[in-house]
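Bit of a strange request maybe. I'm writing a small parser for structure token strings and I need a real example to test against, not something I typed by hand. Could someone generate the tokens for this chain?
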Amino acid sequence: MNLKEVISQNTTSAQKLDAQVKKLLLKRSYTLVELSNKLNVAPRVIEDSVGRLKLQNHNIALEPEGISIEKTPQPMERLVVNSRDFVLDGEWRKFGALGDTHLASKYSRLDVLRCAYKIYEDEGITTVYHTGNIVDGECRFNKHDLLTRSGMAAQIEYLINEYPEIKGITTYFVVGDDHEGWWAQREGIDVGKYIQAEAEKAGRNDLQYIGYMERDIELKAKHGSAPIRIMHSGGGSAYAVSYTTQKIVESLQGGEKPRVLYVGHHHKFEHGYPREVHTVQTATTEDQTPFMRKNKIQAHVGVTINKFHQADTGEINRFSVEFIPWYDREFYFKGEKYRRW
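Reply from user aminoacidic:
Good idea to test on real output. This should exercise your parser:
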């Protein structure tokens, strides 16, 4: 008999013994000596068999009164999550997110926008994501609401001159398919690229265009990454503030989900968590317009500061969003002599 045959025979013998030991232990508890006598083998051979059964995930119970197999799986040990993963390791990130500034509109709040960027500067923020409608655009129903002469060039010039410029802060913006997108639809021009090019001609490198309607940003950590999405969603106002973001996330396939979704267009602030995705509507820096008033749509005037912790493996395991609200112009006029901002 060769070595291979010997090994095969020993393996078969061990399997037969394991089956016998298992059959006995399923009926009742046996001591090591009892099993050894019952099967006419040495105690050491029984110990080896019990060890193999344990490796096969049998619920072997070793009690003072003997050895048995428990038919009900034992409870697993409590999973311990190390809090160090949430603080000491990984990286904290902070940035601003806002949208719907609608510059060149009579209802745009430059006072709010300037104040917001001063707060960002004071907070040490260097990155701001803009969720679209950076200018008001032009169409038949808003042309009487504009501060500038007709045409795209006039509004872009106004934007470059008036949008806050603070050293060390870069604004990354998408454009919507409405408002600034109206020019894209009518004239086939990439409005976002045009804005960035004109800003750079004027010596401004702080306005960076990142996409039409939406763009995914990959936040990299040491051993992984997490995507966030900057979106100008479009569509009408819903019956509930959270409805739009819920439906957006529900429509995404599993592999498409970002970790955080920033949404502009609806002029609302909201933080939700559908399907384990943080959703943030980024409010507006424009007062309620006649169009919004006619359609009974409220404007949440304000901006957000976002802070989260990213683990070394990439996942976002702590997240908070701060909403900084403002009110309509009349509120500030009435309290001007009492209030300091």
